[in-house]
Amino acid sequence: MGTIKRLNHIFRADGKTIITAFDHGVNSGPMAGIADLGAALKQVIDAGTDAVILNIGMARRHEALLGRTGLIVRADFPCTDYARGSHDSILCVAVEEAVKVGADAVLFNGGPDISGEDIGLERCMISIISRLRRECEQYGMPLIAEMVPGGFNPPAEYINLDSLKLAARVAAEAGADMLKMPYRSGPDGRTYEEVVNGCEGLPIVVLGGAKTNSQEQFFANIDDALKCGAKGVAIGRNIWGHAHPDRVISLLNGLIHEGEDLGQAMKHLD
Question: How far apart are CA 53 and CA 51, in angstroms?
């Protein structure tokens, strides 16, 4: 009991969501855009984000700001940016702790070892998802799997339709309730719909990734993912790293909730 009710704090009645991710400080420190996290949170919440992702310390610190906004707490932490080449993370937050800060879901990062050289990455992922699933079932807490082939911050070439399909299905088989996934299109007319259709109906939200140099292509990719069946987005730097985060939220609201075409939605940035 409780899982569906909590998911309804993340998804609107249309079954879709705009999630703003603010969990970058644990590995990258006080980046521009989130150095004053309270101000950044207030701006996107006022603009209409449906949910936010926070690390547990910041969820405690900024409880008063969250109000009715959905709260997703990250349960695992990666290494810092100084640890180059590390693609795993470790479980640091118990589900009970997330319950105490009013979380509507817990999130962890996992991914199959696409390189074939890091079996420890897969063992770490299976350990985390298994433990979290058992704890989540105890508390009626939704489990969100951020499934990135190659693990945390992998080489770009590890991410393709086939690796994404595998990653998504692993999470579905292991008991996740929702997926946060990269977007990729494929050659020969293949589409992201293969990923959506391969995970037994679990809702997928598309992650934002690195700060984009091409706004047009970034939002075109989101538009295509939505047309292929994705249920929304979970974006960090491409929201709070933008000169006008509120306008990005308006654009996403147009695409995701209001049914605007890409051209209409892009006008919100003007």
Answer: 7
